[in-house]
């Protein structure tokens, strides 16, 4: 708005460009007016709170009185090992994220390739694999919790029928994270659908050319499918990382962070610190750190992608 | 050669069918458990098809906690959020696609960074802010953000779609003396119906299924959404899996219905975001 006003005052009495400028000013006025919900929303719900989180991280605050500035104290306490639960949460989160994301990408990519191979009922299968995504996570967590009961769950029963080893799934500290990772594969329908769309965008003449040269399926995947899909693989990896760090429902509904704090994922920890123990200072410090980690991961992926991702002149197009 | 191909295709269908079976089996098992009585829960071998069809479980689950109230709360949150996103999101998307104001694309790029901000990073300030306004433990914090553009992602999707509408449409309307409000409401919105449906459905699911935000803002039972109700239920009815599954079935149903109705829109919408983004 400021800009519009200054251009008014600098206007000459006679000016042939006046009509154009007036129109531009009008466009600016309407543009800002129409965009105002999100501009305001960005300040109120994104930028403001983000800065506030960073600031709160340097304070001690538990809803009574006003925040007390404590400098780096929260961070020092977190990293000096005086908060063992934070350490547990970090370790299990890193374990969970860095196994589940690559696995999920590989799994959904293979699934998408299978679905893309000119089969009958493609959209039917696509719907099947997508289904878990639309179901409330809290609900499907409860369903799997029941199915994965060590003694009476159907999963162990079926494994027994097939003479496969049973597992204690969510009830043992060594198997709980692997179980959550398997569960995360069940939820990759989103990624799969995006991959499938990407695969369908690959022009078929590329494959035909390779066929003429005598290439077989593996050649096709290695020399055409993977390079052509690399921007989407990249996109899905970034989104997958951000989502995996956010995992909250599973520990909250399925395990309450247990057994033995083995599934105390970081956002669950953050939630507990903040809203159960009202340690807003510590929780904000954790939130800031976590945000930086997510940003760092994204940044590294971006740098990395420059050398690995193939953009078919798309960058200029946009 | 032909034989090899046939074998390959059979394998392909076998893998996909097995995979599909595993993916939907939990829903079958949910229904199965919901229909069996308490005594059928722990039998070995478990009955694959329930021996009885007991609707009592549903009745008992529904009457044991105020699910009607939770259902109403979830409905209020979801309907008002969807309305908010469709209106405010489309207005913003209109600005970023049809009005050429200086600095538009830079500001849009800046706003897109909001995509990278997970809710948990800002949930404490959000909570404190609503607390200051004495609006925690109401449904307001769950609805309000939708009326401020309703998430960058939705604006992004709508903008992408609006950009594909030919400029001549606006120009013609402008010649006839239509202002931006008219063009937005009478031209762009009707043409953008398909994108609006996608965004509406995504918003429906996001709000209906949301768990973390209600956990943060809602504390008293009368304001619980269905997801919170489910966890409360879980706490009181441990090991009564038949009732748990009956309650879960009821909660799953609306999401499932929305998905089945709009499957095509949905999947295409998601795909669009990844490929064109």
Give a quick precis of the structure.
The complex is a heterodimer of chains A (318) and B (277). Chain A has 318 residues and is mainly alpha-helical. Chain A has 15 helices and two strands.
Architecture overview:
The complex is a heterodimer of chains A (318) and B (277). With 318 residues, chain A is mainly α. Chain A folds into two domains: 55 residues; 239 residues, MetI-like fold (Orthogonal Bundle), CATH 1.10.3720. Helices cover 72% and strands 1% of the residues of chain A. Chain A is built from 15 helices and two strands. In chain A, strands 1-2 form a two-stranded antiparallel sheet. In chain A, a hairpin with a 7-residue loop joins strand 1 and strand 2. In chain A, helix 4 runs parallel beside helix 8 and helix 11 packs antiparallel against helix 14. The N terminus and C terminus of chain A are likely disordered. With 277 residues, chain B is an all-alpha fold. Chain B has a domain of 172 residues: MetI-like (MetI-like fold, Orthogonal Bundle), CATH 1.10.3720.10. Helix content of chain B is 74%, strand content 0%. Chain B starts with a helix and ends with a helix. The mean pLDDT of chain B is 87. At the A-B interface, helix 2, helix 4, helix 5, helix 6 and helix 9 of A face helix 1, helix 3, helix 4, helix 5 and helix 10 of B.
- Reported by name, the CATH topology of one domain in chain B is MetI-like fold
What's the main sheet of chain A like? Answer: 2 strands, antiparallel
SS element count, helices of chain A: 15
CATH class of one domain in chain B: Mainly Alpha
Measure the end-to-end span of chain A.
28 Å
Please report the total strand number of chain B as a whole number: 0
Figure out the total of helices of chain B: 13
How much is the radius of gyration of chain B in Å? 24 Å
The strand count of chain A comes to: 2
The CATH superfamily of one domain in chain B is: MetI-like
Order of helices and strands of chain A: HHEEHHHHHHHHHHHHH
Q: What would you give as the CATH superfamily of the largest domain in chain A? A: MetI-like
Per CATH, what is the topology of the largest domain in chain A?
MetI-like fold
Q: On the 0-100 scale, what is the average pLDDT of chain B?
A: 87
Strand order of the largest sheet of chain A: 1-2
Name the CATH architecture of the largest domain in chain A.
Orthogonal Bundle
- CATH architecture heading of one domain in chain B: Orthogonal Bundle
